[in-house]
Amino acid sequence: MGTGTSTGVPVIGCTCPTCISTDLKDKRLRCSCYIEVGDIHLVIDVGPDFRGQAIKNGIKEVDAALITHHHFDHVAGLDDLRPFMFYNRASIPCYALKSTTDIMEEMFAYIFRDGNYPGVPKLELAEVHGPFVVQSRSGTASVAVIPIPIVHGSLEILGYRIGNFAYLTDVSEVPFSSIPLLKGLDVLVLDGLRDKPHPMHLTIEQSISVATEIGAKQTWFTHIAHDLMHAEIEARMPARMAPAYDGLQFIVD
Ligand SMILES: [Zn+2]
Ligand SMILES: [Zn+2]
To answer: What is the C-alpha separation between 12 and 2, in angstroms, rounded?
Structure first.
């Protein structure tokens, strides 16, 4: 639903070629991914653009949120999960590492700590300690999720694998020990920020090399900065790799 870096693209006030481009694929909202597995509806990260993304994509249900880490561009929209409780009062679990849930509890103390005044979203922090199963809030279905430990600068954060799909945003390094968890993928979504090195993110070149090592049938790059125009990155991608764009949809067997 979003493929842009933390500022989004266009960047406020910027008149660079990407920011003034008329190519719709150069309009990038903050990173977010919506997944349907049968009757289960998952969202990976709930950033500041979530409300608009949910409306644009016609999203009617969210059974659980899988949170990669606590940065603003990945969690600032959490309160916008409220409308999903209007017809189902069961709380929505937000899965994340303890290091992330600790900070989310501070950031959203009125939800997670102070509790229960009317109108507060019913969200529940769920610490991830290994593979877990998400139940639909109606209790009729479940799906297995494999957390993938990744490095984001000085932070240890999570990517997620569901079946033969994996989503790794905000990556500076995929640790050696996580590579076996990523074998046999049909589709990989991977951080690819820009060409210039960045302490918290993979460059496009580094991203291509990580994607080659993982060897998914198809890799899409996300969290893209305004340094890069869609058409320009697309033109220099190896086979089975491409820059993602807002609204991209695919089916994974
Ligand atoms: Zn980010
Ligand atoms: Zn981040």
So the answer is: 17
Ligand nearest to the CA of 2: 1
pLDDT computed for residue 153 by the predictor: 97
Give me ligand 2 centre to Cα 144, in Å. Answer: 25
Count up the domains in the chain and report the number. Answer: 1
Q: Is residue 202 part of a domain?
A: yes
Segments of the chain scoring below 50 in pLDDT: none
Distance 93 CA to ligand 1 centre (A): 21
Q: What pLDDT is attached to residue 168?
A: 98
- Over residues 200-244, the pLDDT tens digits come to 999 999 999 999 999 999 999 999 999 999 999 999 999 999 999
Between CA 145 and CA 89, with CA 34 as vertex, the angle to 5 degrees is 80
* Nearest ligand, CA 193: 1
Pairing of strands 218-222, 187-191: parallel
Residue 57 structural domain: 24-243
CATH of the domain at 138: 3.60.15.10
Predicted confidence at residue 253, as pLDDT, reads: 86
Cα(89) to ligand 2 centroid in Å equals 31
Token pair listed for 201:
């993110």
Neighbours of 222 (CB within 10 A): 27
Residues composing the chain: 253
What's the pLDDT at 224? 98
To which H or E segment does residue 71 belong? none
